[in-house]
Amino acid sequence: MKKRLAILTLAFALVFALTACAGKTETETTPADKEQVEVTDSQEDKTVTEENTENTNTEEASDEEAEAPSEKPVLNIGTLKGPTGMGMAQLMENDEAGQSAIDYNFEIAGAPDQIIGKIVKGSVDVAAVPSNLAAVLDVKTKGQVQLLGVNTLGVLFIVENGQEIQSIEDLSGKTILASGKGASPEYVLNYILKENGLDESVAVEYAVEHSEAAAKTISGDSQVSLLPQPFVTSALLSGESTRIALDLTSEWEKVTDGSLLPMGAIIVNKAFAKENPEVIEAFMEEYKASVDFVNENPKDAGLLIEKFGILPKAALATKAIPNCNITLIDAQTAKPSVQKFLEILHGFNPKAVGGQLPEDAFYYEAH
Question: Which of 82, 90, 219, 332 could form a disulfide with 290 if both were Cys (CB 3.0 to 4.6 A apart)?
């Protein structure tokens, strides 16, 4: 009996041991208890390698996320060849080098009508245009564009082949060959002549294009001409006896009690400006730095101006920069001069400013 009991006891112990081992093996393969698993050296190396690889991949992903630059805001800009676009030369260079805070898309047009449609449709966010065209677009878009600032002051000069004209009064009895009929140059010249009592004693003839007037000046066919930059500089470089006789910016200031002559403007899509005030602020800061660079470094700026096709030759640009009055004056600061300018143009021809003068909402105000 005792022998039989001993055999049963031994059998029970064996069954218990086997059951316990089976339970332990199942538990050890459970991921939650992986630390307690007894493995061979090769298995351990494999497990450690996998863990390290996973940790490395995670760390690399985190580093890539940390180092990845934040996406830049995009700004579509339309500008013109000539003085209106020259101040953007360094801005274009920095954008090309990836050094700007904004991702700029530049479109450089030869004439305003090439970008007007895009401004109206809103596919261009910011545009550099003649100041009176800014007013026209304000009307045309029913207030959907705003003036960001003035980027070019007077670029008009009386150029003479000779030495007779030393003051505005010396124009009396002369015939001026001009360009820009039906546009700002005509109205600026007429206003200055009128305010000096010369509107009856000075004859003005108009060439079809600026280049035609410049060519006749260079050839000597015209003794006295009204030209804008950079055609003035082109004439000076080519004509042996050609010189600047009068700066109409100075003459304008004399007859307007010191008002500036705001001939070039920066406008912005009103909805874009409202939704992206920080982008506009950053743009104005970078643009101002570019304008300063152009004015202070005409030789280097000339190279960039040629590079981006704003003017055909660097030498021409370098020579023209000092007389192009490139600037950047914010809308609120420039407002009195712009209003005066548009009022005078409206007096000559209401259509020159769109038929009506802009309201206060036309002048962008930073918030």
Answer: 90
Q: What is the pTM of this model?
A: 0.78
* Residue 76 · residue 105 · CB < 8 Å: yes
CA dihedral 91, 94, 99, 105 (to 10 degrees): 70
How does pLDDT run across 210-233, given as a tens digit for each residue? Answer: 999 999 999 999 999 999 999 999
Query: Of 213, 238, 246, which is closest to residue 323 (Cα–Cα)?
Result: 246
Rounded to whole angstroms, the Cα distance separating 225 from 201 reads: 16
Residue 316's φ and ψ, nearest 5 degrees, are: -65, -45
pLDDT in tens, 79-114: 999 999 999 999 999 999 999 999 999 999 988 888
| Start-end of H helices in the chain | 2-28, 41-67, 83-86, 89-96, 113-121, 131-140, 184-195, 210-219, 231-238, 248-255, 270-275, 277-296, 298-307, 314-320, 331-348
Terminal CA-CA length for the chain:
104
Burial class (CB in 10 A: 0-12, 13-18, 19+), 226: buried
Answer whether the bond into residue 130 is a cis peptide, omega within 30°.
Answer: no
Q: Collapse the DSSP code of 59 into the 3-class scheme (helix H, G, I; strand E, B; otherwise coil) and give the result.
A: helix
Q: Which two tokens stand for residue 75?
A: 């700004």
